[in-house]
Amino acid sequence: MTQETGGFAALGLNPNILAALTAVGYEEPSPIQAQAIPVILSGQDMIGQAQTGTGKTAAFALPILSKIDPAKREPQALILAPTRELALQVATAFETYSKQMPGLNVVAVYGGAPMGPQLKAIRQGAQVIVATPGRLVDHLRRDEKVLSTIQYLVLDEADEMLKLGFMDDLEVIFEAMPASRQSVLFSATLPHSIRAIAEKHLREPQHIKIASKTQTVTAIEQAHLMVHADQKHAAVLRLLEVEDFDALIGFVRTKQATLDLAAALEAKGYKAAALNGDIAQNQRERVIDSLKDGRLDIVIATDVAARGLDVPRITHVMNVDMPYDPESYVHRIGRTGRAGRTGRALLLVTPRERRMLQVIERVTGQKVGEVKLPNSQQVLDARIKKLTNSLAPLVADAEASHGDLLDRLTADIGCSPRALAAALLRKATNGQALTLAEVERDQPLVPGSGAARPRGDRPERSDRPERDGPRERRAPLPLAEGRARCRTALGARDGIAAKNLLGAILNEGGLARDDIGRIQVRESFSLVELPEDGLDRLLGKLKDTRVGGKPLKLRRYRED
Ligand code: AMP
Fold first, then answer.
1. What is the 326 CA–ligand 1 centroid distance (Å)?
2. What is the per-residue pLDDT across 236-247, written as a single tens digit (0 to 9) for each?
3. What residues line ligand 1, using a CB cutoff of 6 Å?
4. CATH superfamily of 469-556
């Protein structure tokens, strides 16, 4: 076990949970986790003031899983979430953290899906129920005993639940659980209505809040970019094209993410390396020295690994994953703007993390303006500018040194100086896309699914409360004409990245890169867009394909 997972070990979590954390690559508890986990483990009721992005899900999931008895096949923990989307996310988180707990089952209960299988999973002994209030009340109407064995209750995003009008449902649910249960409430804000619930249904709750001192940030130009989680790599690659950086440090949350992103950058020709808590001290020093002297230009690090890193060459900090709190943000971006120089800090924000952005702005007292993802024209202009800058200094004396050679070569080949110059450029630029059409073809971002999505459109929260109008479904992203969506049960938790799926399908399916559309890797499954034409034949070809040692088993995916 690494010394960093020790940060979790010191909190008193069950060894099986610690093993799962090592597997997902968390290095240390986030501030809300460090505070909440001991309180929940001790059995006290708790109110946690925290928003998405602080690590709040693990803050309650880890201690609750530590306390559950998997041998008892009855519901022990109930997590209430305002939306189907969040319920699914929380259920996935519980599944991830309970990987090493045989016999532990989680059921997600939400509207828009048949009730039968949900009830069956509960009756078969799922110990954790993650539910939206409306659907859970429907279940209670059928079987008022469903919640009679609950020992741990969590209200996640309680303020959102009230905003969505779930107050009455919550009352029904409270009544159906044993009074002796432990209750935990998480909410980004604590309006009067939330305090009233806490007063009535929680017993002497302990309050937990991450203290946010006002922080000052100077000499650093800050900007944020809205992006979807599965488009982050592509967004980073595009930003790097247009950002004029000397050295850059990118921050991510897990060890695996340092490795994945550093590998993606290296593959594009950047001098990049990963820095995480697993990397031995001497290797770490080598990486930092290389960044100092220019053998490396980019380091992708976790917060833990970047501690104490001081490299004056760093002009850019990229927050690829959101920091857990404003302090950590300020700390991260302080890696640039050293020694009186100006620096630039970029922050990638997924739709669910907008609130965290507001908190950062409030605490730092500064607006973090929005930048848009550079379009293909901007990428092309930046490439040509770089080429111009690299060639311009050579022109002055090149004619004196190589002019005669040029004359001879044009005569020997029988071509114009323009033709020869063009051939030399092709060689010098080594296949790089330098026309608009080529740049467009190269860009992995799918139009309309990246940061270019208009504001106000909340794709990750497309999940309405279940009784708001027709029973909701997560709105599928529109499919391009002639494409079909396919699903595999391999996902991020199997260590799969989009490039692994792409590689396998290209190699074994005999497709061209352009035939494959968007690839979305989720925690426990992935979706791939493939040509409708010849799909059955293709799936046949891929029948025995394995990715990362596991069977791909790609199937046509129907949204219903
Ligand atoms: P949440 O605030 O619960 O929505 O969590 C935000 C993201 O942080 C999720 O993707 C988690 O997987 C990730 N996360 C939570 N805790 C940690 C941790 N201690 N180390 C690394 N990543 C974490």
1. 15
2. 999 999 999 999
3. 26, 29-30, 33, 52-58, 253-254
4. RRM (RNA recognition motif) domain (3.30.70.330)
